[in-house]
Design goal:
alpha/beta; Rossmann fold; 8-stranded mixed sheet; 20 helices; 13 strands; binds adenosine-5'-triphosphate; binds magnesium ion
Length: 419
Amino acid sequence: MAKFPGIFIVDPDPDTRYKIAQMVPETGFTVSGQAGLGTEAVASVTKAVPEIILCAMKEPVSRVVQTIESISYALPDTPIIVYSDTTDLDIIRKAMLAGARNFLSSPIRLDELKRSLSATLEAEERRHVRSADNSILAAEGAIITVFGAKGGIGKTTIASNLAVAFVRQAGQSCVLVDADDSFGDAAANLAVTPERTLIDALRAPDDDDDDGDLMSCLAYHESGLAIVSAPTDPLEWRDVGPEQVEKMLHRLARHFDVVLVDTSGTLGDVSQAALAAASLVLWITTPDYASVRDSLQALQATQRLGLYDDRFRFVLNIASMETNVDPAVIEEAIGARLFWTIPHDRLLRKSGQLGQAIVEASPKSPASRCFTELARVLSGLPPEPRANGLIGRLFAGRNGKAQHRETAEVLETAEEAMS
Ligand SMILES: Nc1ncnc2c1ncn2[C@@H]1O[C@H](COP(=O)(O)OP(=O)(O)OP(=O)(O)O)[C@@H](O)[C@H]1O
Ligand SMILES: [Mg+2]
């Protein structure tokens, strides 16, 4: 690899290309070429073999989509980041389906560009290592199931924010699956209005390699995150079999680095299917006695069902400031160590109500930092350097310290789970 990784800019507008080319050296990358759309782009990109391609998503959209498809075909291992001023989710969806890995809002900000390029490159390197390590395992992405034995403990908040962090901060392709068979609201939490739902996805025939029918059931968030949303009518779940859900999750894992599954607070058939399919389970509990007690009972049930094993990671979510069971007591009760602690952050409630991901709306808030770090660690990327001062203090306390101390251990176990 070149000393400074090369970025190739594809944009029909030479002025914008020039502006971005001026910014790239400030990000620690170098410009390896630039071109307009179509054959001009494909020919020059193939010659330049850059580390990352930045491509404008603008009219004529069909021509851009064709260009992305041709580039992805010619250089399948080179990630494409699309930038656009559009908020039209259908256009973003088209770019992602054509092969884009990531999305940036334009006009592009220097800090956003820098972060996106670094995260994309790191994720790409990680992907190479994974496929060199074990090509069979690498063929399937990780299925991460977010479960907790109670309602209102932050499962959807964690699943949706972590999903956006996987895309934005860890450069992973990710699909969020709402498998909450009571009243799933993951899409609404990100202000995405889906045209099709999980019920359509389950019906998609499994008869071609690119799973075109299944992929057409996905909705897209403006970050590029794909979403399989829950049906609006909960009665539609009545005909859903757990084995169908499990199969769909594995099919999705063939196309995404991460399949993140939100569940209901009960251990019904659908949750069991999501737990059975998982390569990693993030088991959420809050620090109040009812939550810990329910967690314990549900854990014992998963043991009886033969589902409980070393895929389980326990996450303490400080959803409210009112009750606070000592984390040591929780660890003793569940008989396992806490893997991660999510701090209380009042902005989480606000951003959820506004349909915003906190990692985008308030990237410096304590919860954002926490989701970013969790997404990076689970992706096998080094944690971002932690700022001293306020964030450090907010993370302080027994669990916060444990989180720091155990980073190496966490990385090891997460890597095993993700490989
Ligand atoms: N760490 C936190 N800090 C502050 N508020 C939080 C935190 N975690 C969750 N919340 C808030 O708690 C509420 C419940 O969260 P959420 O809907 O994610 O729970 P849930 O477990 O998915 O519930 P359900 O099982 O009913 O779907 C939301 O208003 C959310 O913003
Ligand atoms: Mg929920």
